[in-house]
Amino acid sequence: MLHAHLTTLHVVALILELLAERPEQAEALLAGSGIRAADLAGGDQRITRTQELQVCANALALRSDLGLELGRRLHVSSYGLLGYAALSSATFGDAWRLLLQYPALLGTYFRLELSVEGELAWVGAAEYHHAPALERFNVEMCLASLRLVCDELLGQALPLVAAQFRHGRPDYVARYAASFPCPLRFDATRNAFAFPAEWLQRRLPLADPVTHQDMLERCRKQNAEFTTRQAWLQRVRQELAAHLAEPPGLEALAQQMHCSPRTLRRHLQELGTHYQELLDELRFERAKALLARADWPICRIAEELGFSESASFRHAFQRWSGVAPSRFRA
Question: Gene3D superfamilies recorded for this chain (predicted)?
């Protein structure tokens, strides 16, 4: 199943709306992400997951329950054409099957699941493979948003029977009641919430077969375009990742991608990134993995990542993460 490597600025914009009252606060929240406040005016601009996660990490340092709060603001309309296609579906179950059909358009960090176990239907978020420190935050944001989407699809509150979370009980557990007014279980084996399975048969108040077919066709086209752009970006990332010790320059990379440097530069710009940003992102990912290995000295890691000297690597890592490599390793 394809997941999004790119996403919109929607979550970033919500974070700034929630936490940034002054320009300097916005700059602090965007620090290290490569996103400028002016970028938020671009309607169709895409950013990488790494950029979004950096802003989320900055914001989470200011508010621990941020995931829940953002989830309660991510309405069904936040999911664009797919959200409107779900709203016009015939039944609640049809809407959910549609949402699960296009994970790239959902922009989720998880593999979403809908399973029926006896008399209960479970909506779950599994297989998180991103920044471990942000897993709880992303679980809370994802499931809180999906609960809100359920209510908006139905035009009324979906009665929840249970909610389970793999992480431990947080200090702000009382805030869970706003999204999950049901028995809660932490340190569970999954991230999911349950409701009576009979609700899957409920007719949706905004069901419209003509509008639904139109939205479906638009979703298919958008998904094809989006997945093609993701596949192209993944090829670029693979070319760079395979040669981190001696990365190809922009012209050599363009040749490998069978296009001109100008075309490569334009495509990357349309995807919300550029050559150096991709190279830094891949180097940062590889550096974190190597720093987790005690048998790799800093000088060897620097050489592996194509730095001529250890000092250059230390400076770059400090810029990427905000801490020195030795402190990150510790």
Answer: Homeodomain-like
Dist. CA 283–CA 50, nearest whole Å: 12
In angstroms, rounded to a whole number, what is the distance separating the alpha carbons of residues 9 and 43? 8
- The runs of H, that is alpha helices, within 155-274 are 209-241, 250-256, 261-270
Alpha-carbon span 263 to 258, nearest angstrom: 10
Low-confidence ranges of the chain (pLDDT < 50): 1-4
**Residue 3, pLDDT score:** 38
Count the neighbouring beta carbons within 10 Å of the beta carbon of residue 308. 9
> Sign of dihedral through CA atoms 109, 111, 114, 120?
negative
Instruction: Tell me the residue type at 103.
Output: P
Instruction: Show Cβ contacts of residue 161 under 8 Å, excluding neighbours closer than 6 positions.
Output: 120, 182, 183, 194, 195, 196
Domains of the chain, each with CATH number or no CATH: 1-63 (no CATH), 65-207 (no CATH), 211-329 (1.10.10.60)
Contacts of 89 (CB under 8 A, 6+ apart): 95, 98, 153, 204, 207, 212
Q: How far apart are CA 115 and CA 106, in angstroms?
A: 19
CA–centroid distance for 150 within its chain = 20
Residue 2's pLDDT is 32
- Per-residue exposure over 42-53, b if at least 16 CB sit within 10 Å of its own CB, e if not: eeebbbbbbbbb
Residue 34, by phi and psi: left (phi above 0), alpha (psi -120 to 50) or beta?
left
- Both tokens of residue 124? 């779950």
Find out whether 206 and 87 touch, Cβ atoms under 8 Å: yes
Q: Torsion-angle region of residue 32: left (phi > 0), alpha (psi -120 to 50) or beta?
A: left
- The alpha carbons of the chain give a radius of gyration, in whole angstroms, of 21
> Which residues is 196 bridged to in the sheet?
120
CA distance 20 to 2: 33
- pLDDT value, residue 272: 67
Identify whether the C-beta of residue 77 lies closer than 8 Å to the C-beta of residue 83.
Answer: yes
